[in-house]
# Entry
Amino acid sequence: RSEFSKPKEIKLKGAFTNPVASPNGKFVLLTKEHNHGVYLLDMTTQKVISIAPKDGIGYGYTWSSDSKTFYFKEKGEKEYFSDAKVKAYSISQKKPKALDLNHNFLPSYNGMNEIVVHTNPSTLKIEATNLKTAKTWVVTNDEGQFYNAILSNDGKKVAVHNGADIWVYDSNGSDKGKRIGQGIATAWSADDKYLIGFLDESKDGHVVSNSELLLFDVENSRTTKLTTTEHQIEMFPSLYGNNQVIFSEEKTGKIYVATLKL
# Structure
């Protein structure tokens, strides 16, 4: 049985969303409403540094597996999202540099992996690409329009979204998918046995009226509700360290941490 500790707020100036923690838990990437900008939270000092305060770029950012570098997308003011470039920001050197990488390969790129996953914009299938051989193949051979692919830590599985459903496929494209549950998955647990995510509800079809954090047991296709709050809208959980969870509360823009016991 999994347990979720009482969340603690990290006191920050300003409202943020979509926290993505470095694997070692020392830093967290944040953005503001409408994906405005990329910000770096130092968990030791609890100070937030603005990395790229541009509009619409705070999505798809990701960490290297050694926690030393993060990757984000950037586009010029007159450019389309399809023109976005990938920047690599080194924590020690404190400056971003351009990376020769297709921006669609974020967030599955971690600096070390040979295989990345991404949506093919014309077929809306999930594809995988081997970065060494440049070979690309289809992962989701089923019917449907797929989005938001998340590669497992060992690179063998991919969580994908088809409508409101979460499916898991082998990244080599050899199998049929397996439906895990409903919601939006945001991260794998370190052992790849669980996915964490959230399920939001809307009374009018436009504004989110509620959202709870969920844990998905991949092998058994079982869903556990981690939060049950009436007045808070918990979203975008990210896992780091020993099953620590960091997430955002969308009404207030506050960031919280909690511990998950699996």
The chain has a mean pLDDT of 95. The first strand starts at residue 3 and ends at 4.
